[in-house]
Amino acid sequence: MKIAHVLQDYLARAGYQTQWLNGGEAATATALMGDVSLVILDVMLPGKDGLTVCEEIRARSDVPILMLTARVDEIDRLRGLDLGADDYVCKPFSPREIVARVRNILKRSARPQTEPSGRYSYADIDWDEQAHECRVVGELVELTPIEFRMLGALLANPGRVCSRETLMHKAYNDGRIVSGRTIDSHIKNLRAKLGAESAERIQSMYGVGYKIE
Known about the structure:
- The chain is of the alpha+beta class.
- The protein has two domains: 2-109, Rossmann fold (3-Layer(aba) Sandwich); 119-212, Winged helix-like DNA-binding domain superfamily/Winged helix DNA-binding domain (Arc Repressor Mutant, subunit A, Orthogonal Bundle), CATH 1.10.10.
- 44% of the residues lie in helices and 18% in strands.
- A hairpin with a 4-residue loop joins strand 5 and strand 6.
- The longest helix is centred in the middle third of the chain and has 15 residues, at 95-109.
- The model is unreliable at 112-116 (pLDDT under 50).
């Protein structure tokens, strides 16, 4: 409760209107009302836990979700991200960091992320599924099919972390299982092909996966 009130104070100073709800049932109902811009969701909630609430919200809404937790196990972070959370912060944290993350998530969610017919344009990268083309600053970049699908998965969710498991399922359409190191190797090759400036957009999230920022 104390953490919630502190965050409310900091967010109010940053110009955001907030509402504190103590319980999973109320959180789900309020988030689905349609007039909520972002949900800050604690994993440890009375009644329904935060992961269950995240899953329920994401099944019916694409409202951005920032999860807070005292759990540091990788499996908990991966589950939260796979359920659709946009970001994940472990306690203890600085209230200023939460305000900054809220600001960044809202900026990202305000941008159109996709274009018709399986096309993504993000910064200097253009990705076209039908033409199977990737261009950086207008120049064609030759990617392997796996690299191409992996980049598409990242571009589909700019600013959102994709776990290695998610990237594996997106990149390998034959259902095979590969190691995390294999995914890391593909990311390394992808960065090299995109060029220095664009490669920096693919950020590593230690112990979780990757995101394009």
